[in-house]
Amino acid sequence: MSVKQLAEYGAHHINRGVSRMSNLVIEKAKGSWVWTVEGKKYLDLSTGIGVLSTGHCHPKVVKAVQEQAANLNHGQVNIMFHKPMLDLIKKLKPIMPASNLDTFFFWNSGAEAVEASIKLARQATKKQNIIVFEGSFHGRTIGTMSLTTSKTVYKVGFGPLMQPGVHVAPYPYCFKCPVHRAAPDKYHLNNCCNNPIDQIELLLKQQTAPQDTAAILIETVLGEGGYVQPPKSFFPKLKEICDKNDILLILDEVQCGFGRTGKMFAVEHYGIVPDIMVMAKGIASGFPLSAIVSRKELMDKQLPGSMGGTYSGNAVSCAAAIATLEIFEEEKLLDNINARSSQIYSLLDKKLKPILPSKVDVDIRGMGLMIGLEFTGVPSGFAASVAKESLEKQDMIILTTSIYETIRLIPPLNITEEEVDDGVERLCKALSVVLERLVKEGKV
Predict the structure, then answer these.
(1) End of a domain among 303, 330, 357?
(2) pLDDT tens per residue, range 261-291
(3) Which of 41, 100, 164, 340 has its CA 20 to 30 A from that of 144?
(4) What is d(CA 249, CA 240) in angstroms, rounded to the nearest whole number?
(5) Number of domains in the chain
(6) What is d(CA 303, CA 442) in angstroms, rounded to the nearest whole number?
């Protein structure tokens, strides 16, 4: 088949419900790069939406997977223990945000892990209601669709969901906060107005009483909702509310965990310990694996047989996760993440901001190598146009995010200094072309 025929074949036989940003047919990948069946090379700053933490096909991960596949493909978790899972737990325990986060349940995807966290919270507390936040993305299953608020497309036409037990609070999104906008010099990321905390207190008085509320579920850094980091004071105050009202705090670190923000887990930036933490994506460098972790006394409240799954904690995926954690240590990935993060922010400040017309502004935000660029003063579809120009003319894959005009940069955690220079240069070229076109059309 020709490349066009391959793409047409895929479009015809793969469910239309799966959206796709390109018709690229990828044949191989290495590090920060992918190659199509035609041999064309692209710089990949999407990493499978943050999954490929150690880049494409890291040799150590490949070797671990090959060796494990030759020994044991699958040891079903409800039937037996297998050594890769036990070895992975030994690797994970020392890097948890606290030593009492010591009991794990493994599943396959982020959505499944979120569902596992809700099952644990409800069973352990004997309460039903869950508080989530505006802009959150927790998955596409029937249960997690009820918790997701980032875009209506994720749940339109699928109801009824578990909506009666779900209540939504505003996420601490300073850039959109009305209090910040009214007094930007007084209230900002380093001096929160406390409106988000006030809204949660109000929610507990008006919509879901503490004695009916099992958990507050929140992304430590908002992912699909726009790569938004909360103020430093937010999480300590949120934890106080949870502890005071006997409500469990569940942190969704599916996208922001495993080094993405410059620390092993994003919660480490905030100095608190969740009751339950959800992990996935970067945990196994592209292999399907997710997990929740909690205190043993909380996990032990579940009935034997109430948790499980055919592929839970697959042996090959666990081997990939062990290799991933070894790469973190051996290659000092956290050091690289923070160095490359500083480099990207500096380059964006020097090279991207000066090319913006006077009516266009950008909020450059995020942590580590989880970077969002939200543009204002631009027409709808602007971010998608930049991503399209980047793909088609600059041979670079970047993604948009949120309902606003936001681009997200999610490079591999081992991206090099030269690749960062290259990527920012390509982004600025794509942005310049789109802006020049819009200026000529009188749209900016």
Answers:
(1) 330
(2) 999 999 999 999 999 999 999 999 999 999 9
(3) 100
(4) 10
(5) 2
(6) 64
